[in-house]
C-alpha cells in the first residue's frame, strides 16, 4: 500500500462503526501485523516523519475512478461510505495541488485526522490544517450528504428538491448551495483564445429573500419589470466566449467602459479578435486596449463576405442561461454571480459533470483552473 492510500485508510478509522473496527482488528491479527510492526519499529528521534511530507504536485484534471482508488484503496472502500470517500478524494487532491492554505508551502506532514478528514502540519509555517481548510466547505457538517448536494447542483434542482434529496432542512440546503457555488463563481478562464465574441444581456433585478426595506412593492415568482424595455430594473450581464467554448462573464454595476474594463482586461487582449454588435461600452474597451474589433449589425449574424464573424455563440449562451434560470422564478441579484458561475461550470464540465467533479469544483480549483494548473 502506498503512502497516500495508507493515510486515507488511517483517516477512515474514525468513521468506522464498532463492528467494522472489530472486523478490522481481526484481519490485522490474522495477518500477523503485530510482529511486522515490531520488526519495523523506528525510534521517534530518527526524524522519519519527514518522509510523510507531500512533495509531489499533481496536475489537476477530472476525477476518474483510478484517482479515487489511489486515494481511497479497496481495503478502505469496504469500511468507508462511498459518498465520504469522494469528499476525502476531492479534498486531498486539492491539498496536493494547492499546498498549505496559509503560506502556500508544499511540504505538509500528516498530523492525524478529524471528522473523517486527514490533518497536516506545514513545515514552513508550522500551522496545522485539514484538507478543507481555506475552502468554502470548511466546517460544514454531514459530509456524507455532500455528493447528493453536488448531484443537485449538476441537475439544476431547486432548493426544496435539493433539501429533500439530501435529507436536510431547507435553510441548510440553501446555505450549502451558496457555499458550494462560492468557488465556481470565481473560477473563470485566465485568457480567451483566438476569435472572441462579446455581448451583454439583461436580467431583471430581484430582492428575493429580502423581508424588509424593499425600494418597491414585492413581486411574486419573479414577476415582470415595471417599465418596458431597458431601465434601472434590468441588471447588465457581460458575457465573452471564444470559439473553443471557454466563457467568462460578469455582473456589471453599469453598462459603461469603466465597468467592462475590469471584467475583460487581461482575459481579452490585443492577440484576440473581438466581435460585438457595436455596444459603446465594449467598443470603447476594445479601442483603449488596442484589440482588433469587428462591429456587426444587430443581431450580430454573419455576412456572406465574412461568415466566420458573428456573435451567434454568445447569443446562444444567453438563451441557454435564461432558459436555465427560468425554473428558479427569479434569482436574487446579490447572488447572481453565483448562478453565473454555476452555469459556467456546468457548461465547462460538459459530459464530465458528475458528483466527483462537482465536489472538486466546490473545494477548488474549479474546472477552468483545473485545465490551467
Bin the helical content: 40-55%
> What's the number of helices?
15
H/E element sequence? HHHHHHEEEHHHEEEHEHEHHHH
Query: In what range is the share of β-strand residues?
Result: 5-15%
CATH architecture of the largest domain: 2-Layer Sandwich
Give the spatial strand order of the biggest sheet.
Answer: 6-5-4-7-8
Radius of gyration: 25 Å
Topology:
Elements: H1 3-12, H2 18-30, H3 33-39, H4 65-71, H5 74-77, H6 82-98, E1 108-114, E2 117-122, E3 128-130, H7 146-155, H8 159-166, H9 170-186, E4 195-204, E5 234-242, E6 247-251, H10 257-264, E7 273-276, H11 280-289, E8 293-295, H12 312-325, H13 336-349, H14 355-363, H15 367-372
Parallel strand pairs: 4-7, 7-8
Antiparallel strand pairs: 1-2, 2-3, 4-5, 5-6
Q: Top keywords for this entry?
A:
Nucleotidyltransferase, domain 5, about 15% strand, about 375 residues, alpha/beta, 3-stranded antiparallel β-sheet, globular
Structure description:
- The chain has two domains: 3-134, no CATH class; 195-331, 2-Layer Sandwich (Nucleotidyltransferase, domain 5), CATH 3.30.420.
- With 373 residues, it is an alpha/beta fold.
- Mean pLDDT is 81; it is low at 33-80.
- The longest helix is centred in the first third of the chain and has 17 residues, at 82-98.
- Helix 8 packs across helix 9 (170-186).
- The strands form two sheets. A five-stranded mixed sheet has the order 6-5-4-7-8, with helices on both faces.
- The radius of gyration is 25 Å and the shape is globular.
- It contains 15 helices and eight strands.
- It has helices spanning 3-12, 18-30, 33-39, 65-71, 74-77, 82-98, 146-155, 159-166, 170-186, 257-264, 280-289, 312-325, 336-349, 355-363, 367-372, and strands at residues 108-114, 117-122, 128-130, 195-204, 234-242, 247-251, 273-276, 293-295.
